[in-house]
Amino acid sequence: MGRMGFSPKHACLTDEKDPNRQKITNLTSCLLVSCQLNLHCEVRPPFSSKFPLPFFPSLPIGTKATKMSTAFSAANFSTQSFPLNHTSTTSHDSPLVFAKPTSQFLRSTRKLRLSSSSKLNLNRRSGTVVAVSDVVKQKKSKSTPTLLITKEEGLELYEDMVLGRAFEDMCAQMYYRGKMFGFVHLYNGQEAVSTGFIKLLKQQDSVVSTYRDHVHALSKGVPARAVMSELFGKTTGCCRGQGGSMHMFSREHNLLGGFAFIGEGIPVATGAAFTSKYKREVLKEADCDHVTLAFFGDGTCNNGQFFECLNMAALWKLPIVFVVENNLWAIGMSHLRSTSDPQIYKKGPAFGMPGIHVDGMDVLKVREVAKEAIGRARRGEGPTLVECETYRFRGHSLADPDELRDPAEKAHYAARDPITALKKYLTENNLASDAELKAIDKKIDEVVEDAVEFADESPVPPRSQLLENVFADPKGFGIGPDGRYRCEDPKFTEGTAHV
Amino acid sequence: MLGVVRKKMLGQSLLKIRPAVSMLRSYSSAAKQMTVRDALNSALDEEMSADQKVFLMGEEVGEYQGAYKISKGLLEKYGPERVLDTPITEAGFAGIAVGAAYHGLKPVVEFMTFNFSMQAIDHIINSAAKSNYMSAGQMSVPIVFRGPNGAAAGVGAQHSQCYAAWYASCPGLKVLTPYSSEDARGLLKAAIRDPDPVVFLENELLYGESFSVSDEVLDSSFCLPIGKAKIERVGRDVTITAFSKMVGHALKAAEILEKDGIDAEVINLRSIRPLDRSTINASVRKTNRLITVEEGFPQHGVGAEICASVVEESFAYLDAPVERIAGADVPMPYAANLERLAVPQVEDIVRAVKRACYRSVPLAAAA
């Protein structure tokens, strides 16, 4: 769709002018704008120097040209206009993941790109250098690169992402075999965002998601068996089969849904964050520092509720992180076709909170940003808006034929599969051996198989379950004058069902 | 009652707004009068002081003392963390309240009128009403959405709709419609204590009306059951069901009819969802005639539901077809005379009762 040079049938949206030039101009102006922004938030040095590098400069220009997400708006994040970016100059020094791989990647995929890309790419990159280096002096660690994660953390992240991927693949299989039905939205490709953020949370922290919530549930700790049974509609599911794919709730793990309407989860998440603050200030639970994460997509960022909640969260300084999973597509509507300013992270500073853009295909980068954002919230400094640029490998749902997306775009992102990238990082930095990773793969396969078997063997809900749980008050009626719950009119909820 | 009065004496600011209550100290046994506004205010006040988890959120509830002064004095008493002035973001703050309720707080969300609740209706229905069911009991939502509902005086089409039928058709919600001060106090306290989402539909024109209240009503633990209607006036010849402002009209109509020898039984529904079908049906079996009165639009209204319920359960007892008196099937006009025509008046109820009793001039023949 508005992908310049990508889809000829949508040529009407192709910029007539040189897309690359436009990109440079936008990029520069972005950086300048972001440098001028003055946000009242403190940034500790370790954060900015370790700030995740943007992958975009590595992006050949002809393709994602309009994803002008290059500016590290983390520049907006600090009051001293920090740099943070530069892959080209600092990549070899940086401890962060894709340094070498990006350049290799770049070379390998250049064949797919327009021939002009390489030259323009350099221009673009140098444009970036000029803008940034004028403003900043960058600290580079010349010594041996320090690793971002320990072995245990690395394996935990790997296992979580593989669980998410294997589970979703199994969901697709089960759907086509008729065991799952209705709307099923799969998360393949976006695992880095879920794992990167949720693995940093405590059990009492809350997560609110959208209909694409299976992997958020799994990352938060809901057992695979419970999620699979819920999808099969069995009574052993996490919501007893009453919620389904789009409505995963777990009180124990503080997963507050699972909402089908986009934007609906954002106010609910803001309310959960409000509760955390209320508990601390009014109910005097002094150590209540629970953080809430709200996950939602790029399409949601045009919805009124999103802006309403950015306003109120910043106004009341609520401990929430708004995580935008920008996978560029809202069913078949490209983000660029539907948004006047596609750079979502810029909407944060408009409301007085930092807006950060991070490569959502790199779990380590996401994790670094998440640490900072969650830390901010926990310390009571208020909300953060994090835009993760990511991609879903499958269609919007299993019913979506996914014809509108360019196969070259899909291939581009498939090559940046977060799991493969983490695997590479772990093996190259000697954090784990191939054998260990394979063992994890095998273990996850068994977990998923077991989940399917469990779900298959579980019973469907009994007929009497139809009328249960409409109200928390078990008989659906309020309090009598004697202070006890009334129980009257059992036909109240039955309707015409023979239960 | 005395305990309540003593508590009020401590709150200096409240004395100014509670002339009714301060009078109580001087009279010992005379009938006490209380406006609906004071009833709601006292109910909110008592529930907020009894449970720290209760908080009030809405536009102008704090510093402005409430758009209709229902929350007067609460900001001074409880502070800005518990009485929150929100920006004009119905969808946003209704959702925030639902999220807070998921975690065990007890929000009371005020909509300036229920017409504005349409901007938040996604949260009322989808994230409040349905959550307990979708999560199989894990997420209960002890929230109250309250505010004035229905027609006021000359406020035009977009400020005059009655939402009782809309919310009452949705499972997972409880919908309450108080009429008198006793109803207002008792039902609001029950709503706040209730662990489920409650839509509390008040009426702006009733806020200033005074009703006599007994000592029992003024007690801080007074609570009315949700789902029980009240028979305001016992009668033998015809049953009139009504809720909110229409109860007053029905009672006036009953007085007029008494002079014509028709003894009307007036039922104050109090609770639209769950509807007190047993009381209505018992009454119809006694009187054999039914008139339903409501202010909202006629199609798919509350009266339609009551009529269906009576036809299903007490068909053999009906001596005349059920008549529905409802507002005109038009958006509310502005001109005062048209507005009077668009809302049921006492004469409409009287005429309908006479038709039901004599069937001498059937409605179809008159048309």
From TrEMBL, chain A:
Domain called Dehydrogenase E1 component: residue spans: 160-461
InterPro entries assigned to the protein according to its UniProt record, in alphabetical order: DH_E1, PDH_E1_Alpha_Subunit, Pyrv_DH_E1_asu_subgrp-y, THDP-binding
EC number: 1.2.4.1
Enzyme class of the recorded protein, top EC level: oxidoreductase
Catalysed reactions, semicolon-separated: N(6)-[(R)-lipoyl]-L-lysyl-[protein] + pyruvate + H(+) = N(6)-[(R)-S(8)-acetyldihydrolipoyl]-L-lysyl-[protein] + CO2
Family annotation (Pfam families): E1_dh
This protein's UniProt keywords: Oxidoreductase, Pyruvate, Thiamine pyrophosphate
Coiled-coil stretches noted in the UniProt entry, renumbered to this chain: none
Top-level taxon in the UniProt lineage: Eukaryota
Gene3D superfamilies documented for this protein: 3.40.50.970
Cofactor(s) listed in the protein's UniProt record: thiamine diphosphate
Summary of subunit composition and partner proteins: Tetramer of 2 alpha and 2 beta subunits.
Function in brief: The pyruvate dehydrogenase complex catalyzes the overall conversion of pyruvate to acetyl-CoA and CO(2). It contains multiple copies of three enzymatic components: pyruvate dehydrogenase (E1), dihydrolipoamide acetyltransferase (E2) and lipoamide dehydrogenase (E3).
Protein name according to UniProt: Pyruvate dehydrogenase E1 component subunit alpha
Organism: Hibiscus sabdariffa (roselle)
Automatic annotation (TrEMBL), chain B:
EC supergroup of this enzyme: oxidoreductase
Record's keyword terms, sorted: Oxidoreductase, Pyruvate, Thiamine pyrophosphate
NCBIfam families: PRK09212.1, PRK11892.1
Entry-linked SUPFAM superfamilies: Thiamin diphosphate-binding fold (THDP-binding), TK C-terminal domain-like
Domain Transketolase-like pyrimidine-binding: 34-209
Protein name: Pyruvate dehydrogenase E1 component subunit beta
PANTHER family membership: DEHYDROGENASE RELATED, PYRUVATE DEHYDROGENASE E1 COMPONENT SUBUNIT BETA-1, MITOCHONDRIAL
EC number: 1.2.4.1
Originating species: Hibiscus sabdariffa (roselle)
The protein's required cofactors: thiamine diphosphate
Reactions mediated catalytically: N(6)-[(R)-lipoyl]-L-lysyl-[protein] + pyruvate + H(+) = N(6)-[(R)-S(8)-acetyldihydrolipoyl]-L-lysyl-[protein] + CO2
Entry annotated with the keyword Nucleus: no
Function per UniProt: The pyruvate dehydrogenase complex catalyzes the overall conversion of pyruvate to acetyl-CoA and CO2.
InterPro entries named in the record: PDHB_mito-type, THDP-binding, Transketo_C/PFOR_II, Transketolase-like_Pyr-bd, Transketolase_C
